Amino acid sequence: MTSENFSRRSLLFRSVAAGVGTYAISQNPLAASRTTPSTSLYAPPLGIAKLNANENPYGPSPSATRAMAEASTHGAYYVRASAQKLREAIAEQHNLSVDHVLLSSGSSGVLTYLALASSQRGKILTPDLFWDTTSLMGVRNSAFGIERLPKNESLVIDLVAMEAALHDDIAMVQITNPNNPTGIALDSEELKKFCRKASEKCVVLVDEAYNELTDNPSASTMIPLVKEGKNVAVARTFSKIYGLAGMRVGYMIARPELLQKVSQFGLGDYGLNQAGVAGALESFNDSAFLEYSKSKIVEGREMITEAIRSHDLVALPSQTNFVFVNLGHRNAEKFRVAMAKRNVMIRGIYRDYSQWSRVSTGRLEDIQMYVDALPAALAEA
Predict the structure, then answer these.
(1) Of 16, 184, 276, 377, which has the maximum CB count within 10 A?
(2) So what's the pLDDT on residue 40?
């Protein structure tokens, strides 16, 4: 991609953002500060393209930033009323009672709590490749462990194989949809069929951290199965499309009796902070910001995909804010190091998938640094 193409994208970005209104960088100083390199202790260093953690630098929304500033002035007090208001807002959006909602410090909290609760009773069945941090934490001191499906060359989760792998020692099935690190979203109807069947034998956990970034979020979610009374738990986060990764707010939606068991492993509202909850509350139904945020992520994803294809490489179809790239004969860790030399931070090898590299979307300027560094980094990898 040439610098001329990038400039054209930047012009398009400014015109689209202006149409969104308050989120136009040229019109909103808060938006401008979030998309400009900073010397702040709380942001990546100047000159560094941080594309390794699936963060969204187009958040928080201006209204969330104001709410967090106000909430911080009351930081002497523990979270109480605001957390309840957030639970009520989440429950109302999904037409559920508030006892179907459990908040935590990021979705990593509730994911870990459920893994801990389940690992007391049996194994956790998972795909071979997924974000396994919380599951590994859950089984660390358990007599049971994680049972992974065999490798799948397509890297698409094989629901037929997963159903066949269910046995009496499985206490929980965990699926991330869309998957991290592949970015692939499963067919929603096929996933619903699987969840209905599997939930008759054990709890089914669906991590929907990236659901709002899918082509059709309302169709992709498994929350309707919770409303049906199925033994299904859905985890969500404010870290991705909302741009609140550093504020640590997430939640789980499940049957009240399941959440009662899960909550025994958490800290309740003591695991939350005033500013994070305020930001989540303010941005939860901010449709204009969510539209803007998603548009920038999609634009960045297209930039990455276009650049990858121009080098005759293959990227998996992503419905997230990252892209999983097949480097062919190259080594992903060597590629990460080569990119780091050029001030571009990306992920290295996942497990033993040594030729696969994950790059997150970020500021368009940072993605352009990745694009510009590609030829030399590929030559070194």
Answers:
(1) 276
(2) 85
